Amino acid sequence: MNKTKSRTKIEYGDFQTPLILTEKICHKLISLGISPELIIEPTCGIGNFIKSANKIFNNSQKIIGIDLNKNYIEQLSNDLNSNNKITIIHDNFFEIDLNQIILKSNPKILIIGNFPWVTNSQQGSIKGLNLPEKNNFQAHNGLDAITGNSNFDISEWMLIKCANFLQNYHGYLAMLCKTSVARKLLNYLSKNNYYLSSCATYGIDTKKYFDATVEACLLLCQFEPGIKNYICDVFTNLDTEKYEQIGYYHNRLIRDLTTFEKFKYLYTNKPQIKWRSGVKHDCSKIMEFRKIGKMFINGLGELIELEDTYIFPLLKGSNIANGEIGKTQKYVLVTQKFIGEDTINIKKIAPLTWYYLESHASHLDKRQSKIYQKSPRFSIFGVGDYSFSPWKIAISGLYKKLEFRLIHPLDTKPVMFDDTVYFLSFKNQESAKKMLDFLTSSDVIDFYTSLIFWDEKRPIKSSILNCLNLRNF
Hints:
About 30% of the residues lie in helices and about 20% in strands.
């Protein structure tokens, strides 16, 4: 595949759903008693969902397909041989008003299909334009909106548009999407008090059908005005009848409601003791080092002489996850003891360090995140009194395992972590060991496991870790 075709395929989510899967999905919906009058496929592509729906939903009165690709529209129109039941529209889903294509005042509607599995940051990386108009639809604010949390899947926005439309109808949404996106939609509907009468997800073998390695599902939502039910049945595939349930407790989505119910006595939404994340500097080539004797080598391969004052041993998420905690060859330059501290003091206390920072300012000053723009020069984040405590308990957020590590000082200095690590800090070893025993108890492990969605990119989050009540520990 050439670069132009590859870019277009990513930008427009051009991964066609095979007929064998579209037919299987339609038969599943029939078995669930779903008999729509109007069927809409908002991004129909070559039309496999359209063809399967026309074949299987015998009681449907109208089928509408929409797509931005004019070639697909022409091909599909030719394939259908002027079928009067089917209307194919050349339009952009981001701009179309679905209400304008309804032919009946209150039909039973099914919106079905497969939206693009691409994020807005991926679109940005290829300079793609297939995006909705920019707005903070997830209602992020402050640091979350500035840093990575403002990234979103294009399909999330598209699903929300469908849900908005279906609020006024008795209808269904049956859409292939990433499993994490299905949960994001459920979160959005719950947070914004939308109508939703039922919800289910059915696991899809993406390797088999799309030659892709991603956790995906068929998301099935039923909407009825006046009904608000935010419990979701989770099936591993389209054929099984066994399921688990995810749902809400204190506005938090719980992965396993049954297990959580046994251990909810451990839950708090007002933590007194908080898990912290490691240092964020966004410039590893300048701020991180390997040590050789009394000298340091940065990520540019430069041999540097620095005072020890602002240099600390560093353990990364992979070190924590793999138990590589007894020693380290990695070090990090920590320019502040608390967020917002004036860094000019470094010039007097550690002139070699200040000279190093100034001589590499071109790297540090061009850090793109807005969090640095109104902060003292050479600022970092994820730092406070807790960072300098000698004893810590740490866990990696990126690995799919609940393994807590007891971290002791290295080279007589407190250990720092990268920002993929979460930790608690302690003044002495005894308190740290006591806490470790509690965290590794079966009740706590089961409690956390009931909250964690392991298919996410960062399954272990501070928001989950902080649900454990440590106040009376």
